[in-house]
Specification:
By secondary structure, the protein is of the alpha+beta class. It folds into 3 domains: 12-126, Butyryl-Coa Dehydrogenase, subunit A, domain 1 (Orthogonal Bundle), CATH 1.10.540; 131-234, Butyryl-CoA Dehydrogenase, subunit A, domain 2, CATH 2.40.110; 238-383, Butyryl-CoA Dehydrogenase, subunit A, domain 3 (Up-down Bundle). The chain has helices at residues 18-45, 53-58, 76-89, 91-111, 114-126, 237-271, 284-312, 318-342, 354-364, 371-383; strands at 131-134, 150-154, 157-168, 175-182, 185-192, 198-202, 214-225, 229-234, 273-274, 278-279. A 4-stranded mixed sheet has the order 1-4-5-8.
């Protein structure tokens, strides 16, 4: 199997420590040896490669930037590099790891009781348990404040009613972090699979993120104990802070998809002959496209690295992460489109990863905050004026 050579035009690797390079190499080798041999079939059959879950747990990929409870305690550069390599394999794989770590383990770690942490975090880290994050509803995506899911206190139990949709890992999750409106505002609850009144159904017919489980969660008089509430999660800021963690991983992850598209197109253009038996790479228009891609990938790498450094220093803002997610996803999607163009008709064949990345990235541009929402977050940051309504 051909090993991925990496993409490093500006000597980006010289900015990384030996430990960071080692973490990336571990993830890169895992993708080369374990993900790429199975991901094309998984995408075509619309199945998630579940056999990879315990392997990723043993490698420390789940909750990699959290401390304790079996977590690897990596810095945010190392965490980002893992996301990059996983998304080079497939966005669906990176999404699984993002949800497990940033949207399930992080809220338990940040807002949960010690009992909740001890019960769930070691299992989630090892991959022996799977989690999902229930925030988006059928009528409320970009406006989570409008959620209709309710939690009513009755004695020492909470009764949940509502529906969540577009939930990654929903039907395979052992525990769902469900956000609901209460008399005291929005609160988070841990709802275990098998709880009476809780059910799931998968969303079929997807043309994107096919190697990923996407579900709806149904709550009909679902009763959970007082101990199931995340005690420190109060208000909408709690779930939004979880989304910032996931968006950070996306900002790194899509660089991997862009790299894969670029390297596929670059290699193809050097071997494909056209017009007087000359390689495609010898033509000016082809070189212009390759030059655009490598420039934008290099800029995205530096943006991701700086935001990771800010995050490690405790100085990152949600608006910084919005710029990272918005810029890098748009860059990766355009790289996929350009690469598809350079491969001509071959660009739509599943022999090459480009069309799969392109389809996936259309979803990545939308989820965890649409491109438009992140534009408005940046706009508010530079003007002080919210323009969401």
């Amino acid at each position: 199997m051909t090993r991925f050579p990496g993409v490093d035009y500006l000597q980006f690797d010289s900015l990384l420590s030996e430990q960071e390079l080692m973490v990336r190499q571990t993830a890169r080798q895992f993708v080369d040896e374990r993900v790429l041999p199975c991901v094309r079939e998984a995408f075509n059959l619309a199945t998630f490669p579940k056999q990879l879950i315990p392997e990723m747990g043993s490698l420390g990929f789940f909750g990699a930037n959290l401390e304790g409870y079996g977590c690897a305690g990596m810095n945010n550069v190392e965490y980002g590099l893992i996301m990059q390599e996983l998304e080079r394999g497939d966005s669906g794989l990176r999404s699984f790891v993002s949800v497990q770590g940033a949207l399930v383990m992080y809220p338990i770690y940040t807002f949960g009781s010690e009992e909740q942490k001890q019960r769930w975090l070691p299992r989630l880290q090892a991959g022996t348990a799977v989690g999902c994050f229930g925030l988006t509803e059928p009528d409320f995506g970009s406006n989570p404040a409008g959620m209709r899911t309710r939690a009513e206190k009755r004695g020492n139990r909470w009764i949940l009613n509502g529906e969540k949709t577009w939930i990654t890992n929903g039907s395979v999750a052992d525990v769902a972090v469900v956000w609901a409106r209460t008399a005291d505002g929005i609160r988070g609850f841990l709802v275990e699979n098998g709880t009476p009144g809780y059910s799931t159904s998968d969303i079929h017919g997807k043309l994107s993120m096919r190697a990923s489980v996407t579900s709806s969660l149904h709550l009909a008089d679902c009763a959970v104990s007082e101990e199931s509430q995340l005690p420190c999660a109060k208000g909408l800021k709690a779930p939004l802070s979880c989304l910032s963690q996931a968006r950070f991983g996306i900002g790194w992850g899509v660089i991997g998809a862009a790299m894969d598209c670029y390297e596929t197109a670059r290699s193809y253009s050097l071997t494909r002959k056209q017009f007087d038996d000359r390689p495609l790479a010898s033509h000016q228009l082809v070189q212009e496209k390759l030059a655009w891609m490598i420039t934008e990938i290099s800029k995205a790498q530096l943006l991701a690295l700086h935001v990771a450094k800010l995050k490690d220093a405790g100085k990152v803002e949600a608006a910084h992460i919005s710029m990272l997610k918005r810029n890098n996803v748009a860059m990766a999607l355009e790289c996929a489109r350009i690469s598809r163009d350079l491969l001509g008709a071959n660009g739509i064949m599943d022999e090459y990863p480009i069309m799969r990345h392109m389809c996936n990235l259309e979803t990545v541009k939308t989820y965890e905050g649409t491109d438009h929402i992140h534009t408005l977050v940046i706009g508010e940051r530079v003007t002080g004026i919210p323009a969401y309504r």
